[in-house]
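Recap quiz, item 2
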Amino acid sequence: MKTTNHTLNVHSIESFGTHDGPGIRMVVFLQGCKLKCLYCHNPDTIDTQGGSEYEIEDLVQRAIRMKSYFGKNGGVTVSGGEPMLQAKNLITFFKRLKEEGIHTNIDTNGRILNHPVKELLDNYADLVMLDIKHMTEEGYQKITGVKNKETTFQFAKYRETSGKKMWLRYVLIPEITNTPELLHALGNYFKNYKHIEQIELQPYHKLGIHKWEALGWEYELKNARENTEEELQQAAHILSNYFQKVKIN
Amino acid sequence: MKTIDHQPELDNTVVSVKEFVYKNIQPYHGDYSFLVGPSSKTQKLWDICKKAMQEERQNNGIRAIDTKTISGIANFKAGYIDKENETIVGLQTDELLKRAMKPFGGYKVVVKALQEHGLEPSRDIQNLFTKYVKTHNDGVFDAYNAEIKKYRSLGFLTGLPDNYARGRVIGDYRRVALFGIDKLIADKKADLENITGPMCDATIRLREEVAEQIKALKDMVLMGNHYSLDLTRPAQNAREAVQWTYMAYLAAVKEQDGAAMSLGNVSTFLDIFIEKDLNDGLITEEEAQEYIDQFVMKLRMVRHLRMAAYDEIFAGDPTWVTEAIGGMLNDGRSKVTKTAFRFLHTLYNLGPSPEPNITVLWSPLLPENFKKFCAKVAIDTSSIQFENDDLMRISRGSDDYGIACCVSYQEIGKQIQFFGARTNLAKTLLLAINGGKCENTGTLMVEGIEPCDPDEYLDFEKVMYNFKIAMRHVAGVYNDAMNIIHYMHDKYYYEKAQMALIDTNPHVNIAYGIAGLSIVADSLSAIKYAKVKPIRNDEGLTVDFEIEGDFPKYGNDDDRVDVFAKNAVRDFNNELKKLPVYKNAEPTMSVLTITSNVVYGKKTGATPDGRKKGVPFAPGANPMHGRDTNGALASLNSVAKIDYNDSQDGISNTFSIIPKSLGANEKDRVDNLVATLTGYFNNGAQHLNVNVLDKETLLDAMEHPENHPQLTLRVSGYAVNFIRLTKEQQLEVITRSFHKSM
């Protein structure tokens, strides 16, 4: 679906997001993503041809009606899909949210770092949640289907240099991403970053499988298993050596 | 007049409970760390109660019934759970969980209830009630006309208190503790003397009522004597304050079996006595908690004799011992005391429970520690509900109020309420589409409604026009029924014990209600925004609807449809307000269903929103299951749009969420629930039930009830013990929307 400069291509809206940034958040899931992560739990947001066109001002008005629930911490999160594919129009959206005094947050894979993205990062996004897929090039390609993990790291560096808040997110899959070596590599890479408030560990779960089946796609991670409580705690423990706050989401 | 000579430091020159509270309250801003566990006495008693409740469940819901005694204030001798461990004494009958007959509301339902357990009333009682004594139920049916009976039997009006006691009157039970009964009798005698001629209907009636109240007060003294308590004088310490207050309440539930028998707001009052004794070193925190635990335990043991059919509208054997906790005083101080915490803490000391129906009066100005504790209790127990204190206190006027039944404001000791169940607004809408005929039977209910063209798509303007005619007519029949019911209830089953503890000649609100609001809103939306074609049978009655295209649905914060819900409430309320009411009561209305949303659904044909015949309604003002697709806050916002001024008896909403969706850990969950409540009430909403549990827990409880004896769940305006619901009701609860973020 095409968008004009005053619309966004939206997959869905969750008015009570409690896992997508601080406090209670209205989460706008945008349609379209260039990656196809093996564990994606919203595979129906991947196709850039889907979604519905929402007037940005309509979304702003919805957010205003949620404002009384946001309290000191909450606000609006754009997730997806990959929100940065619509960065130019997100500027308009976030600009309006800032005018209304609403906290803004972007959940991104950090693959795009063009001019509009930079403007968004510099001026309008109070928080960025950057998804770190894998610490090796091979692992990154296997999970996402695309090459060059370095782009995400460049994105991280850009945000860090701007001196603004960032959270990292990392999906924990036993053996695939949850190994001591990989976790230490992750910690070592970011240990000198000063603006990472916390890292969120997202335990892998299979709740999205039925959506893959509904799309007629094969779910390649079928044999992966979910983490035990012990594995989760162990991962959190390792990362707590490197980050000021580790949260299991 | 007796002085309160036992309270030298407390200001005792008061003329009212409210003044006493104002002068002596000690608001508490701290956290819950001072709370203590149950005493060993409490634990011993509770073990006995748990065993007795298990016997009750195993014995088809009844442990014992007395078939020889008509229950009354002083008609049973003392009863105990285990006397030596009871700090607070008193049971409704002479034995734990033994139920008593209260036949003045309706003798037939008592006989039916007994028959269902293979029993019958004693010969003497049979003789009396078949030959000599007339009941409320007899009176109502003498006066009902054919039209009211038709509306009642076809399900347009359901749950009317015409064969059972109306309830909802809250006595000011604190008065017995503060003043002692001698003073209360003296005051009522003075009132009686001052009710002078001319002796018209109203004056004669009032004189008779006050005379009855005086008799009730004398009976309360007798009841106290059975337990060796001297209720003629004021309470002299904390234990007595709790005991006296409970005795006053006990008198009410011995005499009446009203659908809802609220307690009021006693925690702040009792705290004054408790704090004094604690400060004077007379008691410890453990004893203070013991008084409250044992008081609450007694409230949990209140039972009424009900027939099985009653369960369809009021499932789970509820008693609605509603206690309002928290809220603000009009002078800006908070009413939260340590005893507010102690009441909530009973849900840990004794485990979760539907009764007493603990209702937190929420204001953004409440102490932060209290808000967090309430959120924690809601998350841990799913046993409490929340109501908007600022909204009710400011628009209704008093800061000394309780919650009558489920959700309704009632100023304590100054006002009462005439309960009126509800009308089925979804069926009323179907009248508009079926030429004024009942969709199930073809019976003509409303004259003057043009039938819609059978082959056409429904025309919005035409349906709206007809709907308004139907609402006007239904309101008239409803009002007629209510006037008859309350006239007769006063005449044959007057609440003399409760009324003795209320100012003479109080203000009366009449509490009308509606069900099916979300169906009406979605149906009107479908007719306006999609194309709806009725499928009709040979008689021309609608049996189903074909919908072409999509339409906005109530529960998504979408004004296009939410306005239909808001306006339907306003319009029906306005129709009711035009009508004359018995005792010049002030009309109010609620959007509340109890559990009757299931039986309402059964009695209602297919509706234009796509709901099939017989499918349950959503409870209260909730959106229909599964149609709120934008998450919990959008759903809450839709409900918040209904104007409280159009529905002052209450707008019930039930919010169910799985723990994980409320937040990743306990701290997040507490913070998010506090923020949710703050936001919802800031947006002008009135009531919220909060359930935090997994659907899997409920499914497991269906299969293995023995593992979940205390699993509690909020339904419309009250809470139920989940395993005491029928299978059908359990399934209905499970299919409701459990908010789950993606």
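The interface with chain A takes residues 557, 629-635, 637, 661-665, 668, 671-672, 674-676, 678-680, 682-683, 739, 741-742 of chain B (CB under 8 Å).
The two ends of chain B are 66 Å apart (CA to CA).
End of item.
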